[in-house]
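Final report, closing paragraph on structural work. Over the funding period we assembled a curated collection of sequence-structure pairs, and we close with a single example.
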Amino acid sequence: MKKLLQISIAMAAILGATSLVQAQVQAATSAAAAGSASVQSKVAMCIGCHGIAGYQSSFPEIHKVPMIAGQNAKYIGAALTAYAKGERKHPTMRGIAQTLSDQDIADISSYYEKQAAQAGATAVAETVAQPSAQVAELLTKGACASCHGANYSKPIDGSYPKLAGQHPDYLYAALKSYQTEGNPVVGRGNAIMAGQVKQFSHTELQAMAKYLASLPSELRTVPQSKFR
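Its predicted structure, as stored:
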């Protein structure tokens, strides 16, 4: 009888432990689902531009909106913070960024950093086509690789963007924005980038942007529907 009682107690303990584990798994699953839903609600405002392949902005000039899937989370976060503070001038982006908390920015940035890989993007090639002598000279003059890294896809710090494969018209518009001064709605306030970019003519910026855009890249636009 005593042995049977011991077995019963042991079985009860096992069943109790199993139930506890099941409850913990269910709680974790529910939390993950809630977290996923929360992130989806945060990126909903991004999808209208960054979730449509080939989507073009008309401000401050017509250009494709940047691909942000696969971009560094730290850079996306820094960019959103700069828009919120007005260091990057863009009325639409500032209006959106100012509604975001620090946690929102962290969640959105992490989401887009992982999105390209989740959509099946592969690692970029280690060997790339070399630029023309003229473009190589321009890139060296601007010391571009010193921050944006090997093949312009491996920045030395996550707060710098991957440039390889980005839309050339966006790169050109972004580079020009560092040359802009005194405009209340256009321009980017980064002293290092301004110092580098102001060395170049618009024709030279276009040449660099075209080469950088031709390089293999992890960046993607992952099509998404607002009505999921």
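The longest strand covers residues 56-57. Residues 20-34 have pLDDT under 50 and may be disordered. We thank the funder for supporting this effort.
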